[in-house]
Amino acid sequence: MKKVVKFGGSSLADSAQFKKVGDIIRADASRVYVVDSAPGKRFDKDKKVTDMLYSCYAMAKKEVDFGAALEEIKERYDEIIRGLELRDFSLDQEFKTIAKNFKARAGRDYAASRGEYLNGLIMAKYLGYEFIDPAEVIFFDESGHFDAEKTNKVLGERLEKTPKAVIPGFYGVAYDGKIKTFSRGGSDITGSIVARACHADVYENWTDVSGFMVADPRIIKDPVGIQTITYRELRELSYMGASVLHEEAIFPVRREGIPINIRNTNEPEAEGTWIVESTCQKPAYVVTGIAGKRGFCTVLINKEMMNSEIGFCRKVLQAFEENEISIEHMPSGIDTMTVVVHEDEFLHKEQRVVSAIHRLASPDAIEIESDLALIAVVGRGMRSMRGTAGRIFSALAHANVNVRMIDQGSSELNIIIGVENADFEAAIRSIYDIFVTTQL
Ligand code: ASP
Known about the structure:
With 440 residues, the protein is α/β, with parallel strands linked by helices. The protein contains 14 helices and 15 strands. A hairpin with a 5-residue loop joins strand 5 and strand 6 (179-181). Helix 6 crosses helix 7 (187-197). It is globular and about 80 Å long. The chain starts with a strand and ends in a 5-residue tail after the last helix. The model has no long low-confidence stretch (mean pLDDT 94). Bound molecules: aspartic acid. Aspartic acid is lined by residues 9, 37-38, 48, 50, 115, 169-170, 184-188.
């Protein structure tokens, strides 16, 4: 049994958290590869070290004295070193190198990556594991994309020779030898890459919540947790804003069918959520999760006899493509098609899109409506259950929510419902109640 364990920023924010992490790793000998984030927030108004590094580097670039700002960052690490009582270990030399490289403009990504790098050095010392610098084993190609195959080969060979190691998250090396980071929250991706490269049995992702909840706890008080979710269900929910794990973290492990287990560092006995390729485990409720986002608008295009005009949709879509607008959904009728887009992306281009649709597809009329919220009701259990849609819509009617759009993919994995922005929370509550609260 081999496990890759990734710890998020709040799990490594100070020495007290570090000790919890040490206990978790030592409790299970199969936790052999550790991926760390930079120290995160210790309390609500606190600063993440990654953000402190970005602003410190911005000062260096403006040639403002950044000494005090860097010292504040160093103090975060020194507290951890003191708290863990790591003797004959200091990051003094590392901070001198960082100051020198900041002055030499080593780059914004280099600056941000030091958060994970330094935490990794401490973690390796604390556990007695080897330290592997991702700059030697995680690669980006010339167009700036993550080079999955080269990384998998080099990292795989390295891990074969290294039975236990700490590998900092979030960064690797660009084709020109410079440090490059993934997008924010990217340590989740590193964990997944390491899991694939060593053929791990499990990728444990430790954070500060006990996995995914059926609905957003900011809307539903103490929602029930999700025990098992498939990669595909998770994709649907993360797209709609459920954010516990970086969206791209699914891809490397998915290729090997490695399950991800989301766990809580502050509640290690909780089983958390399992993310798997497929399962015969029945979901606890008909719906696995409910998520949603506000801020969409719809462009309704009307043309008589549209159903028999070959190529009409393509022409309409071209108008969006020419204006570089991505399309979220596209329900259609006989003489109408509706294109759903993000309001903030669309707003300043709307008139250009309207005239492009007229030029390309000559419709009879175009109507734009805004303030739409989309809610995705996701669940592999919906396929085999009659009446799910009926229950959703009667719950919404009882809650006085007007449904403006419905879209169900043929995968039957989800139903997307469009409601007014103002009805968003009431709609989620009523769907949660009908599927979960009434079943408890
Ligand atoms: N430290 C980085 C961030 O704050 C990456 C991570 O924590 O995953 O985004």
